[in-house]
Write a structure and sequence with these properties.
This protein is α+β, with helices and mostly antiparallel strands and about 190 residues long. The chain contains 5 helices and 7 strands. The strands form 2 sheets. The chain has a 4-stranded antiparallel beta sheet with strand order 1-2-3-4. It has a 3-stranded antiparallel beta sheet with strand order 5-6-7. The N and C termini lie far apart (about 55 Å).
């Protein structure tokens, strides 16, 4: 959700809540009320930015990526599953990404909740897409192509440090396939001759 869209949502919700409560605010002119509500939305964005900066200040869990003991298994995780990375799309709320040693998840929702996930053993390839503006901000889209019939492509939109995230996914996929004893095999179409 972009900043202007977020402002509109906050403004609509404040106006709706005031109308439902029956409170009439006539002492504040409408244009000043709009500025006040926009300032509230900006304050919320400042909180989200601070949370994002705090999240970025925490290094990627290199101990887990290197195979040494890391944090406890993620909520609902399997034994031995450790979180390798987490993040969210730049300037977006309500979406969170999580890479563990066994799965890649997208958590969506602020009030409601939806979780999509791909087992790392099903990942076939990854792609990175960045336009010039995103390169300046060091954000980009990481696409994960999988053999999962329900989710053949998973896109992590506007992630910070997308090259590093893509490499973390790649290494986690290789490690998980090795842990399960799976070997690389490419399906080649029938030879014509």
């Amino acid at each position: 959700m972009q900043r202007e869209e977020f402002r509109r949502v906050v403004e609509d919700q404040v106006n709706r809540s005031l109308a439902e409560s029956g409170v009439l605010i006539t002492a504040i002119p409408a244009d000043q009320m709009r500025v006040l509500v926009q300032a509230m939305a900006d304050g919320l964005f400042a909180v989200f930015d601070a949370l994002e900066e705090e999240e970025m200040a925490q290094p990627v869990n290199k101990r887990a990526a290197e195979g040494s003991p890391g944090p406890a298994a993620p909520q609902g995780g399997h034994a031995g599953e450790v979180e390798l990375w987490h993040g969210r799309p730049y300037l977006t709320i309500g979406t969170r990404y999580e890479l563990t040693s066994q799965r890649l998840r997208i958590h969506r929702g602020i009030l409601g909740k939806r979780i999509d996930e791909i087992e790392l053993i099903r990942v076939k390839d990854t792609r990175l897409k960045q336009h010039a503006g995103e390169r300046m901000l060091n954000v980009g889209d990481v696409s994960v192509i999988s053999a999962d019939a329900t989710t053949p492509e998973f896109v992590l939109h506007n992630v910070r440090n997308p090259v590093e995230v893509r490499e973390l996914i790649r290494k986690a996929v290789i490690d998980e396939k090795a842990r399960r004893g799976l070997r690389y095999r490419e399906d080649i179409g029938e030879e014509q001759g």
